[in-house]
Amino acid sequence: METLRIIWEFIVNHYGIFLAVVIVLLDAVTIYRIIRDTHSPEKTLAYLLLVIILPVVGAVFYFSFGINYRKERLYSKKVIADDNLFRRVEERIMSGSLQILMDNAERLKDVDDMVQLLLNDSKCMLSYNKAELLINGEAKFPAVFEALEKAEHFIHLEYYIVEEGVVADRFFEILTRKAAGGVKVRFIYDDFGSSGLKRKRLNALRAAGIEIYPFYEIKIYALANRLNYRDHRKIIIIDGHTAFLGGINFSDRYTNVPPGTLYWRDTHLKLTGASVNNLQYHFIANWNFCSGYKLEVDRSLFPGNLLDKVGEDLVQIVAGGPDYPRSSIMLSYFTAIVMAKKRIYITSPYFIPNTSIFDALVKAALSGKDVRLLLPGISDSRIVNAAAKSYFSELLKSGVRIFLYRKGFVHAKTMLVDDTLSMVGTANMDVRSFDLNFEINAVVYSSRINSELHKAFLSDLENSEEVDPVEWGKRGKMAEFGDACARLLSPLL
Known about the structure:
The chain has 21 helices and 19 strands. By secondary structure, the protein is an alpha/beta fold. Among the domains are: about 1-65, no CATH class; about 135-305, Endonuclease, Chain A (2-Layer Sandwich). α2 (about 15-35) runs antiparallel to α3 and α2 (about 15-35) packs parallel to α4. The N and C termini lie far apart (about 50 Å).
């Protein structure tokens, strides 16, 4: 007790020195963890700068947002416990995909790098499908409601945002009715994105027999870290043969009514075919984590055959999240850009590229490719918008054409390359989608889908303003400084 009293008196009498020592030790530990655990040079420098400028705040921020606690101890995406069975499934995916690749060698010769990358990186199987492009909520919601009405066995849903309103009322009415008719309904919602869902609504859905769980439920003791990792996917899987994915959440804002409200421009995709099995795999991985119990993996969840020729559109599904070994979605974007021979048209609401994507875009433009970016002129995040603008000068100088959408808010996440490769999904062209969010994209090898996406892109340009390189170069120094400051934070956004 005497020793404790002496220590306490020392702390009280030398409070300033004690506080300084604590801060120095805290910063030292934080800097050590940043250098040891952060593999991205850009993020490492950003975190170090934050800790040096704001010692205590920077340390708290890093330990709240910078450490991937989920990857360290919270999440396992292993679906099949039997390793031998899992290896046989992988072998079937590889052999079937290689057979399709061989049968379509001439058609896929210009995109062979992408197909092989996704097969070798994360066993993203190649399969025959029928793909349908859905422009805006006006096209998506009727198609989804019609498909839900036809469900006979199960409906699996995984959504970032579900907001109360007219769309949600219709959506939940169908789900409740289908559940009452014996259809198994399983639903994952992001606890942060869907925070507006009322408890009364959730209780009613559970009472109706719908299994519904939040993804990574936000709790006070882990608030910051749990806010950092979000399930940004928008997936619907019906009876294992029909699926939807893309950028459109369940919200009235996407219906663009009444006239005069902010216009939301977005893109979704309907898939029929074997690629639905791939979406099912990723859904079950998250379901097992969220629900706390494992679905029995059987034929009923994965109907059909990999080689079934439902349609002529060849598709691979690429998923990403902080628990995946690599940033597969970023690698797919990078590969699509560097393998382009003619054109690269990208639409993204949030544009904060990492060094690899940025350099690939510059290289493509300097090589004479037609590189165009369609970004929001009206954004829902001023700091993200400012960070995006900090990249404009270098891109414009290299020949990249940048268009700012003015009709409303462009929320679509699409890329088209040359005449056959298209990508539609949930992932933005930013570091958050590459490293922190759970995302999912469809890579579609189809001249028809590419042509439709091309027409939609050109139509969007009619409602956009092209950034003039000369005028952009005349911007004031303070504007450039503000964008540069936002760019310093871009690896953390």
